[in-house]
Write a structure and sequence with these properties.
CATH architecture: 3-Layer(aba) Sandwich
Largest sheet: 4 strands, mixed
Structural class: alpha+beta
Shape: globular
Number of helices: 10
Number of strands: 4
Order of helices and strands: EHHEHHHHHHHEEH
């Protein structure tokens, strides 16, 4: 029997994508599903739908305060660390290219490491030395990934993945698919679980 698949589309710049990433494996495991991790550039998607790259800069002060509270409430709910970097949002082009440069076998480890660097420790992932060190700690060839991140092939790959996200109708992160059904946001994980349960039969 084919295992159901949940696609997770993400950019490490997004706190809600980070939050979803901390839960998706457990949800998939409960339903015998496979997680497919899809990196893309959130800025490119936002531009395609006419949304500002820095949506937080467009928020009123009360809404910005509530947004800050909301993400920390979710972090507490999931029992995971979350630290808002003073310079957020930081450019994640290098980080996302480095994730792809890690290859299929290293992609998930690179993703988790860079999410944690950005959102659990507030590290500056715009810096090549920081990205290399983060990936080294994850057991990867950090310097090699950073070097390959600058190659035309990796740049083209990330651009193509971002175009694919736009073609699929993605307008933000995290976005998840179960079959043809799309779910946006870490607050839709229960719906993702429900869809996986329907795909795999009754779960525990």
């Amino acid at each position: 029997m084919t295992r159901p698949v949940v696609e997770l589309w993400y950019d490490v710049v997004c706190p809600y994508a980070y939050l979803a990433s901390t839960q998706i494996d457990a949800i998939a495991e409960r339903h015998g599903a496979v997680v497919e991790w899809h990196a893309f550039l959130l800025g490119g998607v936002l531009k395609s739908v006419g949304t500002a790259d820095n949506a937080m800069a467009q928020m009123s002060r009360p809404r910005l305060h509530h947004n800050w509270l909301d993400m920390h409430r979710w972090a507490e709910h999931f029992d995971v660390p979350l630290e808002m970097p003073a310079e957020h949002p930081r450019r994640t082009v290098l980080a996302m290219r480095a994730i792809l440069a890690a290859g299929e076998e290293g992609r998930v480890a690179a993703t988790r490491a860079l999410f944690a660097a950005y959102w659990a420790r507030g590290e500056d992932v715009t810096r090549p030395d920081v990205v290399a060190a983060v990936l080294d700690r994850a057991g990867l060839d950090g310097a090699g990934c950073v070097e390959r991140a600058a190659t035309p092939g990796v740049k083209t790959d990330l651009h193509a993945r971002t175009d694919e996200a736009i073609r699929r109708g993605i307008f933000g992160a995290p976005t998840m698919f179960v079959g043809s059904q799309m779910y946006w946001g870490q607050d839709r994980l229960d719906f993702v679980a429900r869809a996986l349960s329907a795909s795999s039969g009754p779960g525990p």
